[in-house]
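Lecture 7 notes. Example A: sequence first, then its structure tokens.
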Amino acid sequence: MALSWEQRAHAAQASLFLGEAVSNGAVFPIWIDDHHFWYERSGDDGPEYAIVDAAAGQRQMTLTRRALAAALADLLDVPIDRHELVLSNMRFNLAESVLAFSAYGEAYAYDWLAQTLNAAEKTADRNWLPSPDGGHALLLAGDNLQLRDLATGAERSLTTDGTPEYAYAVPGAALRQLNRSHRVELPEAVWSPDGRWILTLQTDERHVLPLSLAEYAPGSGVRPVIHSNQTSLPEDPKVTEFRMIAIEVSTGRQIEARYPRLVAVRMNATVFGSGMAWWSADSRIAYFIDVERGEQKAHVVAFDVATGSTRIVFSEESATYVEVSVNVYTKALIAPLPATNELVWYSERSGRGHLYLYDLVTGALRCAITAGDWQVREVLRIDAGRREIFFLAAGIAPTESPYVTKPCVASLDGAMRVLAAAPGDHVVWRPGGMAMMLKTLEGMDGEAISGLSPSGDYFVETVSSVTELPRTWLRGRDGREILLLETAKGDLPEGWQDPEPVECLAADGLTKTYGLLFKPLGREDGARYPLIDLIYGGPQLHNVPHASFANGDIGSGTYIDAVHLASLGAYVLVLDGRGTANREQAFRTASYRAAHTASNLEDHIAAIHQLAQANGQIDLDRIGITGFSGGGYMTAHAALRFGDFFKVAVAGGGNYDQALFWHSWGERYHGAYDAEHYAAQAAKTYAEGLSGKLMLVHGMMDAGCHPAGLFQLVQSLIEADKDVDLVLLPRGGHDWQGYGLRRRWAYFVSHLFGETPPPLKSFDRPLEHTMKRFVASRAKPKKVEA
């Protein structure tokens, strides 16, 4: 029996909480010492914290959040819901059976044997950068730096001349604005091994113009509020710059590197945020990597902190752009070996992403550590003593997709082996990775989460596929299985259908592309159904999930969104076309200097025709498309340039013109600014081509993809006398919000299905719950009045 639209709407809402229907799909280990780690899991009594003894191969104990919430409620004399409680800065002391943590801005210590909770002195904070000996911490104080004595709590200023436009140890204003919700302000700096020096920077934006945001619906008052948001654009002659300095801790004396100022690159990150700064073993030489504006050249620079002199150790150039990692959002895949003056360096010089070993004294290349028709995806650990590197490799399993990863170890002399080759995608968490961003909002320290033990003797891996729920193992450094930690269990909705992995040919008829095809909810034999292309058109990511939605990786969001759209009764395709990441260099850079071809809409059209030829239930006369951010950008291009094929398009939060986006993005992917060249990628250039239905959804407080790009596109559509539907979110940032998702769903009902959508409320989402918990965790809970 066919489902009603009310039933489909109910399924659409439930699909957004699909991740909560599976327990223990993701394990995020935080190591206590070389042999013990803890992680949060779902137990019979709700959330709990498990401590594992890796050497014994046993789960040592669990501590329930119910017990902690009850103890905290008794101490504060307030009711506390264990499901809403956010704990941060958690540190287990196994010798004393004490868990130290922070809640509601205060520090506590819980003795789990005595079951007692006491207020404690705050000795650690996510915003503090501790010294090597643990005696001091560096922290931000407005636009300056302060040093805190961790024994006495005394603080003193290290700098005093910082200003908002010339601040110490922070990235540029545009990146700070985008990351404001995370509220983690760790100084951008590195301590020298002997604790005498701090390598840091001063961010100069005195010449950077604002790209202001107008808050038309402020939380209080009626006057709109203007938020200055200094942002460097591709046309700007000068952009955000960094003055590299070393500060002597005892005196505050500064030594500036005698080197041209660095510019913001790689999504406006600093060398510290990108993991591209470190010290020599003797604390005399600081190193940093200078990626030039446009990102076609990168230089490893040695900085003598005694004199300020510098030298370029070695350089790398590219005809497109130099990649120092496979993901521009995460830290570079480099690893210094201070004891031997060596550097492990990531490069695509062979056409594939591999690792190379350099001599930091001479700048000479010693050897290629890895090689072959596969990619290095993550560098997880360098074991200097064993001279081994632990990493994740993609495309190394010949019978699986080139995106699927396996854990490997390689000698720095070149010999390598796969540690776990079971079918499926293998996740071993790296500190500071993209998936850690959400964990930060849940109170965890994204820099402390690690799949590898500090000694490298153990690793924790989660294995899954798009058709199999995750299982998580503890393994020894040789890959041997020690303990099956978790087997995910799911209560999946009635009528659940796994998506189908698909392999297609690109529009060139030669290149393989990979995707997932999700089936319509309530699909019946003999019926024909629309297809919605769920696209991401950014060259810096791949969009197709290759693991379970429950494994905690960033692909979970795409997977769940596809299920949400399939509730309409449509096929949903997720595909990575040419010009997207995590493939060979030629595939990835196919969109270089042509940002509007990332994921290549022609490849999507070719794939949909191939799928329809194989599956007669796909109706080629009813093809829709949607996406957010880079996906919103490409959705608009689909409607404007290929409207004869994509009949209905819903674009969210698009960066519709790279000339209005960060200079570091536009120059990296579309090249140096030239008005005519940049016009080729701007969606507004193609306004005359709109023929189908297009709805644009945008947050007016979007600091990433500025609303100016949206309105300039809309103005071009007005001038072309084209009809466009517009949904503005006055307080919305870079997000659909539940209201935008509701309007998207109803738009497809109306225009792709030709039906009347049922009465709907804005869709509820887990993200809103997480954000509310995070905000609530900042303030002390109030007592209930009698």
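Example B, a different protein, same format:
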Amino acid sequence: MEINHKVVMQRFTEFINTASEKLADELVSPDAIFHVPGHPEPVRGPAGYLAIIQMMRGGFPDIQWTLEEMIAEGDKVAARFTMKGTHLGAFFGVPPTGNKIAVQAMNFYRLADGQFVEERGQPDMLDLLQQIGAAPRP
């Protein structure tokens, strides 16, 4: 049976927007590896991915991701997201500003049997830091 990557990505977007433990267990392999910018070691499994989401929600409690486009080939998916939220908590040591953000992220995934087994995420951290006033704008 061929896995429909579009359906899996829609479920994954629901997962990251709700931080549902049930969806984490359904969609994320226990052996999954997630390479996170700013972390020297990857995080692993459903609990690791939920920790990434909670870190983002710590700074942006209302954060939501919109899947803008995706390309799938074999077991790999490339996806472009827009992250939107309000800076209401400390983020990377930056105190809350109340600023709204809209930041692009480009993520690459590897799937097996309908579950995520690897991710390399590349949010536009410079743009995010500029939007919360932590980095100068050109």
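Note on Example B: The beta strands are 28-35, 43-44, 64-73, 76-86, 100-112, 115-123. The chain has four helices and six strands.
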